[in-house]
Amino acid sequence: MRPGKHPSVAVDGLVMHDGKLVAIRRKNEPFRGMPALPGGFLELGETVCDAVVREVREETGLETRTVRLVGVFSDPARDPRGHVISIVYELGGVGGALKAGSDASDIVLLDPRSLPRMAFDHNEIVRGWLSA
Amino acid sequence: MRPGKHPSVAVDGLVMHDGKLVAIRRKNEPFRGMPALPGGFLELGETVCDAVVREVREETGLETRTVRLVGVFSDPARDPRGHVISIVYELGGVGGALKAGSDASDIVLLDPRSLPRMAFDHNEIVRGWLSA
User: Fold this and answer.
1) pLDDT tens-digit series, residues A25-74
2) How many whole angstroms separate alpha carbon A10 and alpha carbon B74?
């Protein structure tokens, strides 16, 4: 899925692991090399909850379940590739072992109270989640 | 926007007016003639909040603002046209006068505790909202 004439839908997951926020270091543009929440595009025929659990598994190795819907982020300028809306879930029930997947060059565990600059609007997403 | 190879994004609004839930009677298929929440497809370059306020204005004549995100409904079978996810907001601050718009043949004011069969999964959406 790539952004086109219509807005595309992505999902991103907020996962805590040993007191840290699980992020990936992006292997690809845009924002290559920057930390980002695990996530990706919704596929045809899957629910958003299934999609975010799948993306977190593929990118981090962790088995999770959705805990709650955090928000929908739809600023047309949030993704330089085009209009991509992100549906963000808090995930829990963590199992599995951390292991970087296909779209991640590395996994980074972040102190959520002292975040580096993240890709897209992910700093804003995490800040809103922490203050909710 | 029409459903295609990727999931499409729609928005739907929950608006109370004089103690009743504002619905439209669908002029077009699918579910022609059935009551539905006011809503429609997200356009390229607009936020989901702007989209739901616009759709409610176009379909009902009411001026509203978003109060809170109610949920994201993404069952691939919820729309017979294809995979359309719906992002649902509760709206308030109602102004303007009720007036059926382009995609609505009529406006219907429903008792939210005694709903008729609605289009798509809109009964489920309203039930979840009332029980939250």
Assistant:
1) 998 899 999 999 999 999 999 999 999 999 999 999 999 999 999 999 99
2) 12
CB A55 within 8 A of CB A13: yes
Residue B49 — φ and ψ, nearest 5°?
A: -65, -45
CB-based contact B23:B108 (threshold 8 Å) = yes
The answer to whether the CB atoms of A44 and B9 lie below 8 A apart is no
pTM for the predicted model, two decimal places: 0.92
Interface test with B, best of A8, A42, A47 (most B CBs within 10 A): A47
Cα–Cα distance measured from residue B3 to residue B85, given in angstroms and rounded to the nearest whole number: 10
Q: For residue A45, give Cα distances in angstroms to A53, B7, B60.
A: 15, 8, 31
Please check whether residue A49 touches B, CB under 8 A.
yes
